[in-house]
Design brief:
300 residues; alpha/beta; 6-stranded parallel β-sheet; two-stranded antiparallel sheet; globular
Length: 300
């Protein structure tokens, strides 16, 4: 890039940032980090892990842009359940990069000075013990930070998340708990057979769940009442997090590939041609500007 072009980009980028700060900034941004392997191929790297390492380094830069705009939540997709289908060597390289990066975050001056709370979401049963140990240390270290929440999706699939949410919703509901652990026999007996009552008193955290009547109820009928949009949402991986306002995907692919399927019902989408390691601040600002230019109705 010539000097004149660099100067022009600098002034354009600053003007764009000033204009963006005058309008509504998204609270939660999701990013699909795509294009690391194609970046490696583009620059003639035989080892695709070099592209993944460049992609890992890019996240710091993007987080600094988010902090500058006072964006409060960022969710990035680092490794999908489908990525396990890649060659064993590439999967091991990726997991090693992720583990090293997360371990670096534990004592990172950038993470700790900026009070960034880091959480890893996904199907943890698929991850190695050493990676889980690093995740636990990082999450414990940053658990009280409130300036920015960073969710890193590892071993994540949108369909799997919905399945897990429904399973956990069922297993956690108070009716099942009482049926398994708190069935008691009443003192009354009918026709020589003891009458069984099912206690469904909920804990304070579960007062919003419908109560099942005493006596027997049909499991399917009861479950059909407790499985709601709200109850499933409470059991997603990032519990309590608002849905993303904007989802960005790099590399020119125009699809979600399963990223935040449940949460993205009313999200705005922005697809950028740049590979993730080449994603620039001006690309990021254009995504925010695009979001701001849209009329968000959320079904209203």
């Amino acid at each position: 890039m010539t000097l004149i072009k660099k100067i022009a980009y600098f002034y354009y980028e600053n003007r764009l940032k000033k204009d963006i700060l005058k309008n509504k900034i998204p609270e939660h941004i999701g990013i699909i980090l795509d294009g690391n392997r194609r970046y490696a191929k583009k620059y003639g790297f035989n080892d695709t892990s070099r592209g993944h390492k460049k992609g890992a380094d890019k996240l710091y830069e993007v987080l600094s842009w988010c902090l500058e705009l006072n964006i409060k939540i960022v969710t990035v997709w680092a490794f999908s359940t489908d990525n396990f289908k890649r060659s064993k060597s590439e999967v091991l390289d990726l997991m090693d990069i992720i583990k090293n990066q997360l371990e670096f975050y534990i004592n990172s001056k950038f993470i700790n000075d900026n009070k960034i709370k880091v959480s890893v979401i996904g199907k943890r049963e698929l991850l190695s013990k050493d990676l889980l140990e690093v995740i636990d240390r990082l999450e414990n270290k940053t658990k009280d930070y409130v300036n920015l929440k960073l969710y890193i999706a590892v071993g994540y699939g949108g369909r799997q998340e919905i399945c897990d949410a429904i399973i956990n919703c069922i297993s956690d509901n108070i009716y099942i708990k009482n049926k398994l652990n708190h069935i008691y026999e009443s003192n009354e007996s009918i026709g020589g057979n003891k009458k069984v009552s099912i206690s469904c008193d909920s804990s304070p955290a579960e007062n919003s769940l419908p109560r099942c009547p005493s006596d027997f109820v049909d499991d399917c009928d009861y479950l059909s009442n407790i499985i709601t949009v709200e109850s499933i949402s409470k059991h997603l991986y990032a519990k309590g997090s608002p849905d993303p306002d904007l989802i960005i995907r790099t590399s020119g692919e125009i699809r979600l590939s399963g990223f935040l399927l449940w949460q993205s019902a009313y999200s705005e989408f922005y697809f950028c041609d740049a590979y993730w390691p080449e994603f620039r601040e001006i690309d990021f600002l254009r995504a925010i500007r695009s979001y701001q230019s849209r009329q968000i109705r959320a079904g209203k």
